[in-house]
């Protein structure tokens, strides 16, 4: 069983729509949760981090965490073509290293 | 955020040779560094974790004698791929974190190195 799973892509949304990205994790003691965006050929860049249950908003991005369901999501409002990338969910438990999901490729259609 | 510089960004080497990749934290002291490998269309896989002045901890399945990691200073870690073969061709990415470690500690990524072994 994979430790971090993301909804299968690719995901396509029209410009201006809401893109919803989902992630589940298996380790109940996970403490920190991150969403990264990765453009082709580039290294990941951090979009959001979330540590407690509930929603966290930053501009057009909202991360949602539900530890009871072991679920974390990322919503992108007013999606733009520049948001087209692969989105990686990463989870950190008691150890220092991050465990990454396989990524969801998002395409925002003009 | 903090800046992590990785060099080179691209390297092509002949099979059997060794390649060194550098990862520098430019504006903070990196007490912990992580090295990842990413094959096409796949996610990042952790290779090893190193703390300054200590031997690196390698993930299962990663050959420590083939992938030599040195973290001799608080601003520099190196990954040397020894006797590289075409199957080692991949995107190698470092990540660095500093300060006292907490659950909220953020690790910053370098730009990545595209290694091609011919």
Summarize the entry for a quick read.
The complex is a heterodimer of chains A (110) and B (118). Chain A is an all-beta fold.
Describe this structure in words.
The complex is a heterodimer of chains A (110) and B (118). Chain A has 110 residues and is mainly β. Chain A contains no helices and 11 strands. Chain A has strands at residues 4-6, 11-14, 19-25, 32-38, 45-50, 54-58, 61-66, 71-76, 85-92, 98-100, 104-109. In chain A, the strands form 2 sheets. In chain A, strands 2, 4, 5, 9, 10 and 11 form a 6-stranded mixed beta sheet that branches. In chain A, strands 1-3-8-7-6 form a 5-stranded antiparallel beta sheet, with no helix packed on it. The mean pLDDT of chain A is 93. Chain B has strands at residues 4-7, 10-13, 19-25, 30-38, 45-51, 57-58, 67-73, 76-81, 90-98, 108-109, 113-117. Chain B is mainly β. In chain B, strands 2, 4, 5, 6, 9, 10 and 11 form a 7-stranded mixed beta sheet that branches. A 4-stranded antiparallel beta sheet of chain B has the order 1-3-8-7, with no helix packed on it. Helix content of chain B is 0%, strand content 53%. The mean pLDDT of chain B is 93. The termini of chain B are far apart. The chains are: A mainly beta (110), B mainly beta (118).
